[in-house]
Design the sequence.
């Protein structure tokens, strides 16, 4: 049997002990005393009850107001939860899993313009970005994925991982910077951070392919022209620059740091009319040339084939597909323990309901 604790075992042991103390501690905070009933010096005459008297016998037992049966059930529940938190398991056989020998980096524009409503049926561009990231991950299963976003600065939203659930969560929460903080950004803001990540990956695992997908609209709002999006040759082994938006542009709803999107559209301060973001295909094509990857303009409903077809899976996979790997399976045993905890919880609820009902009947029967 093997164990994979959800937290460090010293912390887990402390939590279990703390829970047991809470179960057995007297409900009124008084410590149980011996048969003599004294916890120290007692003042007053024998048999008197006063300020210096300590409860004895039944008085002490009554302080432990929680029934003994309840305490033992809670003790068993704590033990079961503690054991489940150790994640016991039995080694199983080997199973096939798929893993592309690729690191996939998604570089996403999260400036205010990414919510411009000119994607498909006047939908925000960010919806197309989310859909395409999910589709690319499905087309390259088993790869390692990372998400970088840029606006005023560049952030690594998701470090390299094979966990598609984590990728889905990162994609679902993609949101633009608050419009009140927008001060103009450059389309090459992520260059240095991306280059550093690619260099690290190349040094650590040179045999793995490094694929970059840049997703944005190409709109340069900073006063200065964008710096070249230059990455050292050989660091990028494939990918694409994906463009969103139209030359006519789209309106943008205001976004706030605390309250999310607004029903109001941003205004152009020079005209007072609704501001419009216009996609710049020329800038995106320049970025694609600098990264040595193709440029693909995206429309609602486009398939993902044209985006991933250029990736060299003959080199980074097996037979132009993903390579098969065999990993050792593990039979998890924590779930029967949790079923036991659920059964004890149902028992405790039933006992509490029965106690309340019995108490009510006694009160009604009393003169």
Sequence:
């Amino acid at each position: 049997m093997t164990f994979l604790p959800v937290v460090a075992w010293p912390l887990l042991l402390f939590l279990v002990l703390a829970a047991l103390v809470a179960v057995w501690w007297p409900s009124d905070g008084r410590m149980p005393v011996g048969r003599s009933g004294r916890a120290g010096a007692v003042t007053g005459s024998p048999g008197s009850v006063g300020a210096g008297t300590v409860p004895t016998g039944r008085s002490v037992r009554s302080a432990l107001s929680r029934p003994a049966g309840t305490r033992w059930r809670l003790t068993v529940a704590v033990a079961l939860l503690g054991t489940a938190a150790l994640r016991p398991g039995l080694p199983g056989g080997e199973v096939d899993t798929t893993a592309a020998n690729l690191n996939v980096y998604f570089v996403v524009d999260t400036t205010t313009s990414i919510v411009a409503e000119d994607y498909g049926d006047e939908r925000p561009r960010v919806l197309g970005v989310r859909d395409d990231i999910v589709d690319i991950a499905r087309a390259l299963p088993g790869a390692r994925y990372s998400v970088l976003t840029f606006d005023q600065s560049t952030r690594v939203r998701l470090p390299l991982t094979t966990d598609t659930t984590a990728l889905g969560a990162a994609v679902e929460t993609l949101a633009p910077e608050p419009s009140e903080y927008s001060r103009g950004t450059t389309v090459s803001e992520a260059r240095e951070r991306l280059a550093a990540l690619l260099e690290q990956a190349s040094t650590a695992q040179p045999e793995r392919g490094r694929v970059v997908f840049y997703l944005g609209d190409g709109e340069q709002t900073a006063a200065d022209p964008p710096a070249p999006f230059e990455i050292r040759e050989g660091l990028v082994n494939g990918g694409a620059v994906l463009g969103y938006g139209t030359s006519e542009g789209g309106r943008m709803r205001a976004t706030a740091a605390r309250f999310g999107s607004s029903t109001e559209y941003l205004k152009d301060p020079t005209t007072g009319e609704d501001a419009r973001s216009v996609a710049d295909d020329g800038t995106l094509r320049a970025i694609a040339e600098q990264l040595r990857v193709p440029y693909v303009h995206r429309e609602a409903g486009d398939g993902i084939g044209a985006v991933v077809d250029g990736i060299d899976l003959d080199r980074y996979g097996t037979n132009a597909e993903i390579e098969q790997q065999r990993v050792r399976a593990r039979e998890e045993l924590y779930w029967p323990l949790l079923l036991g905890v659920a059964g004890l919880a149902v028992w405790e609820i039933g006992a509490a309901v029965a106690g309340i009902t019995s108490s009510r009947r006694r009160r009604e029967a009393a003169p």
In short: The first strand starts at residue 2 and ends at 3.
